[in-house]
Design goal:
It is built from two helices and 14 strands. The chain has about 190 residues and is mainly β. The longest helix has 6 residues. Strands 1-2-3-4-6-8-10 form a seven-stranded mixed sheet, with no helix packed on it. Strands 5-7-9-11-12-14-13 form a seven-stranded mixed sheet. The N and C termini lie far apart (about 60 Å).
Length: about 190
């Protein structure tokens, strides 16, 4: 029987519910398939996977479920692809070793406490106007996302006319420059 005729299949050390294209369980060696066989990361899929150190969420994924990476305490790097539109509640809650976060251009919704207690990050790259316009000290969804960052890179083309980020633009502790290639504003903490 072909692999796709089963209710579940595995690929890249991920357990995937075939019909819904939902990754339901991952581990420290998981590589999320980018072939379209996964379009969402399910609730608690990597919950308490304390050996996971890095994850790239491909463009074929559109949603990251509630608590998907909750308490992945060794996770240091997350790249969220451009296809992701929704990051649900507590998706990266208490990923305390997270030092590098890239949020792709497709994100239009970030749930409550999505990055709560992620206090180690030093580099944040934002390629989504939604994330740019809403990230900051008062942003419940990302709480400390920008407060703890030493460098924030914002894709200039993602900034819609009239959008601002009062935390970055008005903060006295950031210096704004433009990348050498002219694609990003770089905010560096003084």
């Amino acid at each position: 029987m072909p692999n796709r005729d089963r209710k579940y299949h595995s690929d890249g050390n991920c357990l995937i519910e075939t019909g819904s294209k939902t990754l339901i369980a991952g581990c420290k060696t998981s590589v999320i398939p980018s072939d379209g066989s996964v379009t969402s990361i399910g609730e608690r899929a990597f919950y308490n996977c304390d050996s996971l150190t890095s994850i790239t969420i491909p463009d074929s994924v559109t949603s990251i479920g509630d608590s998907a990476f909750y308490y992945c305490t060794s996770l240091t790097s997350v790249t969220i692809g451009d296809g992701v539109t929704r990051i649900r509640d507590r998706a990266f809650y208490y990923c305390r070793s997270l030092t590098s976060i890239t949020i792709g251009e497709g994100v239009t919704s970030i749930g409550g406490s999505a990055f709560y207690a992620c206090s180690s990050h030093t580099s944040v790259t934002i390629e989504s106007n939604y994330a740019y316009a809403n990230a900051g000290s008062g942003w419940n969804q990302c709480g400390h996302l920008l407060q703890n960052a030493t460098e924030v890179r914002v894709l200039i083309s993602c900034i819609e006319e009239g959008s601002t980020n009062s935390y970055l633009e008005n903060a006295n502790n950031f210096t704004k420059t433009t990348s050498e290639d002219g694609l990003y504003y770089i905010y560096t903490k003084n």
